Amino acid sequence: MAGQKSNTIVLVSGGLDSAVCLSIAFHKEQRDIYPVSFFYGQRHAKECFHADAVVQHFRNQSPRVKALEFIRIKNLFDQLVSSSSLTDSTKKIPDHFPYQDNNTIPSTFVPGRNIIFLACMAAYAEEIEAGKIYIGVNALDYSGYPDCRPAFIKAMQEAISFGTTFPKFLITPLLALTKAEIVKEGLKYNAPIKYTWSCYRGGAVPCGTCDSCKLRAKGFEAAGIKDPALEEINND
Amino acid sequence: MAGQKSNTIVLVSGGLDSAVCLSIAFHKEQRDIYPVSFFYGQRHAKECFHADAVVQHFRNQSPRVKALEFIRIKNLFDQLVSSSSLTDSTKKIPDHFPYQDNNTIPSTFVPGRNIIFLACMAAYAEEIEAGKIYIGVNALDYSGYPDCRPAFIKAMQEAISFGTTFPKFLITPLLALTKAEIVKEGLKYNAPIKYTWSCYRGGAVPCGTCDSCKLRAKGFEAAGIKDPALEEINND
Fold first, then answer.
1. Residue A11, SS3?
2. Angle at alpha carbon of residue B88, lines to B82 and B92, rounded to 5°
3. How confident is the model at residue B1, as a pLDDT?
């Protein structure tokens, strides 16, 4: 029973950061890995298919990686949250600007998202006896969302451990990395970057101007590497 | 905008403690009160109807009390949690025994329940600009659930405040009270105790032997008061 608690949950969104996070977990953890993804009504719901492709990449390498647990909570978010441009298609998704400079929280912030995700993963961890939960949050090259900050993660870690029957550790290997460093970690751990999707607008091809596209492009540029996902699209 | 943040959310389950909690909030808070209830697949789902009756009691007194926001997350709990006798009708709900004496967590514990409830209420608080969230948890005459302990509440309070855009306070007026004291608080604040339901078994009448029935009976006995809900049933 105690041994089984070394199972690991990894939050996989379909984006770059979580794919790198899963690749790190795959290399560092010895026991079973349970990837989890959420459909909460995000406009770029196509990221869920990318999450599945990323997970499948690792499942092809080892049966230690379990099938993606896909959790649908769109109805819940519809009921609770109406203010986010990331879930309300009548709102405009803004182009990128340097939020960190003026402490503005962009309209793409989904209130309670990471709190609810982590709460769900805590319940799931209790069931599958996972002692570790990986989440690819980043507080350096990010949009300024409050639920990506170290203080939030630390408090949530404590809440989860105190509120359940055995300790669970939140592992955030990307928390203090630049986007360029995340790209390099991805290459180091053979993350299937070409399968990932970041664009908030969720169109046929990445828009190139939203927050998520801009931060991603900045990372690849600073790392001196071409984005394999864009290469893939250009080759189509 | 700042003024609106004095709105209040109250978790109302339909049981004794949350009815007392709502009556305290009703008397102490000046601004609007948003009651929230969850259907998560609990076997005593009839408590949801009791929650509605309790809320209606206060709505008849003031339009400050909003209609019960009823959140259905049974599918989510079905997917995440299979180990609890409170949500799995193939399991046996145990009769009461003094859990605190041997540190056992009873099978009625639903992993992640209060973490998920509070996470959802944090998202909702962000939307309706509520700066306070009342929850009637109790760590004295209780079943030993880890997500009712002060350390959990404190950590969750910090996680919610760090992870959202403005501070939200978790108010737990019953945390350090005995069940008898909770009963007395209920009388003091005119809580509609007769409308409440506590029995985990959710039958036509309270079983009288489950944890929740026993703790409730203990409270009324120690307070020297007859339970108005049982009086109501006996008068039918």
1. strand
2. 120
3. 39
Rama region for B73: left / alpha / beta (φ>0; ψ in -120 to 50; rest): alpha
Tally of domains within chain A: 1
Which residue stretches of chain B are H helix?
A: 16-28, 47-59, 74-80, 113-128, 150-163, 179-188, 211-223, 228-235
- Pick from B68, B135, B143, B156 the residue to mutate for testing the A interface (most A CBs within 10 Å): B156
Alpha-carbon distance A90 to nearest alpha carbon in chain B (angstroms): 17
CA distances from B30 to B8, B12, B18, B235 (A): 9, 19, 19, 36
CATH of the domain at A112: 3.40.50.620
Condensed to tens digits (0 to 9), the pLDDT of residues A171-186 reads 999 999 999 999 999 9
State how far the Cα of B153 lies from the Cα of A58, in Å rounded to an integer. 38
pLDDT at residue B3, rounded to an integer: 42
Is any Cβ of chain B less than 8 angstroms from the Cβ of A114?
A: yes
Residue A143: its pLDDT value, please? 84
Domain range enclosing A71: 3-235
B210 CA: distance to closest CA in chain A (Å):
21
* Nearest CB partner across the interface for A112, out of B75, B111, B123: B123
List, for chain B, all residue ranges whose pLDDT scores fall below the cut of 70: 1-4, 98-102, 236
Is B81 an interface residue toward A (CB < 8 Å)? Answer: yes
- Report the chain B residue with the minimal C-alpha distance to residue A84: B127
User: Would you call B118 an interface residue with chain A, using a CB distance cutoff of 8 Å?
Assistant: yes
Q: What is the ipTM of this complex?
A: 0.93
Nearest CA distance, A73 vs chain B (angstrom): 7
The separation between the first and the last C-alpha atoms of chain A, rounded to the nearest angstrom, is 49
